[in-house]
Amino acid sequence: MLDNKSFREEAHKLVDWMADFYENIEKYPVKSQMSPGEVLQKLPRHPPAQGEDFSKIFADFENIILPGMTHWQSPNFHAYFPGNSSYPSVLGEMLTATLGAQCMIWETSPAAAELEELMINWLKPIMNIPDNWTGCIQDTASTATLAALISAREKKTDWSVNKNGFDSNKLRFYCSSETHSSIDKAVKILGAGAGNLVKVPVDERLAIIPGKLEELIIKDLEDGYVPCAVVAAVGTTGTLAVDPVDAIGHMCKQYDIWLHIDAAYAGTALMLPEYHHFIDGISNADSLVFNPHKWMFTNFDCTVYFIKDEKALTNTFEILPEYLKTSTRGQVKDYRDWGVPLGRRFRALKLWFVIRDFGIEGIQKRLREHIGYADWFGQQVTKAKDYEVVIDPILNVVCFRYVNTDMSEEKLNELNAELLAAINSSGEAYLSHTKVNGKYSLRMVIGQTYVQKKHIEKVWNLIQQKASTLT
Ligand code: PLP
């Protein structure tokens, strides 16, 4: 078993391994090339009765686990949304693991609670979040959205569902068909019933049409439903569509509806003043979530949840068993009252490290570089014969496809799926796909922390080369 001396030795070796790994990350296939069951087959079915040497454990990590990993930190990773890390973030995470604190209440680690509060206060003015809002750090956007919609439910029902359960299923929730599945999940879990999530029609850029939303709200009121919350997306998962927050906000105010903004990925762009218009009218909203663990260089998990009315949140989630009663209650922030889990990791530490190491200007520079690379990539696709950008790109996401006018739409969809598989099985790059108005499209996301222009040039060459072998 490791003791302090051997821990020190192994930890030193591991840090060297980690630095080498980042230096050589492009030598690994971006997407794991393992087939189903392969990892399991290589591992013993039962745990060891006696402790094993760390060198043996680590050898298995390198030989069995590592090939089964997809490398999200590779600059050739362009799939989904990034799950970024960075050097300062890793160092912060190492310390968080070393301290191993469970930061459920202020007393269980005052610094964790106060640093969390500071991070919210640092981010608010930069991201143009109203000064009278507050917030906390949660694990995922899914959890924060669930907390928002449960708070909306409680506020709308005068805190009665928490007490008495549902006596009707008349509450209505609204979002577009493009919003993330975490909204569907939250509405299901909070007990309103999946059928009470109303999908609002979208325009040609896949953003909510405010007039359509209002028609649906009015119809629901006439039919005896109770409009409870709207989720506006600032950056949908498929194409980064941005719902019109200002118009939706006015409507929510008029009809007394909670407005939650899901800015999970694109929220990081609010670090740049030129994108503050995404949340024009935010003063009429109630909450906003974004994930520094996607595009803001802070490793998973780290989710910032801003909220206008702290009381709506704490009145909903507060439960006070005897063992959690403290003498500081009321004077400090006990974040266990701010969401579903009791236990909380010290996530603020790595975010603090990242912000201090990059500096705000360093973060902004990197974000603008990513957006610039995406602009360049979009131009190459537009210029190239046989390719098209399927929808105007927003920020650093470009949805595109191979097109050959002789082919039917069905054949084109098949061909583009084959193209994606060929790119990903090469191990040279990893992209994912979406469907835009029925068109199977490749989705190129350029947001990995250390990506450079040369990587984008490489992927563009790879795409063209793979396409030429398929057609
Ligand atoms: N909202 C949007 C727009 C997303 O794209 C995602 C995930 O990609 C989520 C929410 C869920 O994020 P999380 O994994 O933090 O729950």
Tell me briefly what this model is.
The chain is an alpha/beta fold.
3D structure, described in words:
With 471 residues, this protein is an alpha/beta fold. The protein folds into 2 domains: 1-31 and 70-85 and 360-471, Aspartate Aminotransferase, domain 1 (Alpha-Beta Complex); 101-345, Type I PLP-dependent aspartate aminotransferase-like (Major domain) (Aspartate Aminotransferase, domain 2, 3-Layer(aba) Sandwich), CATH 3.40.640. It has helices at 4-23, 38-42, 54-65, 87-99, 110-127, 141-156, 160-164, 181-189, 210-222, 245-255, 292-295, 310-317, 348-383, 409-425, 453-470, and strands at 77-78, 134-138, 171-176, 197-200, 226-233, 258-262, 287-290, 303-307, 387-389, 397-402, 430-436, 439-445. It binds pyridoxal-5'-phosphate.
Outline the fold blueprint.
Blueprint: H1 4-23, H2 38-42, H3 54-65, E1 77-78, H4 87-99, H5 110-127, E2 134-138, H6 141-156, H7 160-164, E3 171-176, H8 181-189, E4 197-200, H9 210-222, E5 226-233, H10 245-255, E6 258-262, E7 287-290, H11 292-295, E8 303-307, H12 310-317, H13 348-383, E9 387-389, E10 397-402, H14 409-425, E11 430-436, E12 439-445, H15 453-470
Parallel strand pairs: 1-11, 3-4, 3-5, 5-6, 6-7
Antiparallel strand pairs: 2-8, 7-8, 9-10, 10-12, 11-12
Helix pairs in contact: 4-13, 5-13, 6-8, 6-12, 9-10, 13-15, 14-15
The structure holds pyridoxal-5'-phosphate.
The site of pyridoxal-5'-phosphate has 15 residues, from helix 6.
Q: What string gives the helices and strands in order? A: HHHEHHEHHEHEHEHEEHEHHEEHEEH
Number of helices: 15
Shape: globular
> Beta-sheet strand percentage?
5-15%
Regions with little confidence, pLDDT below 50 for 5+ residues: none
What is the CATH C level class of the largest domain, in words?
A: Alpha Beta
The CATH topology of the largest domain is given as Aspartate Aminotransferase, domain 2
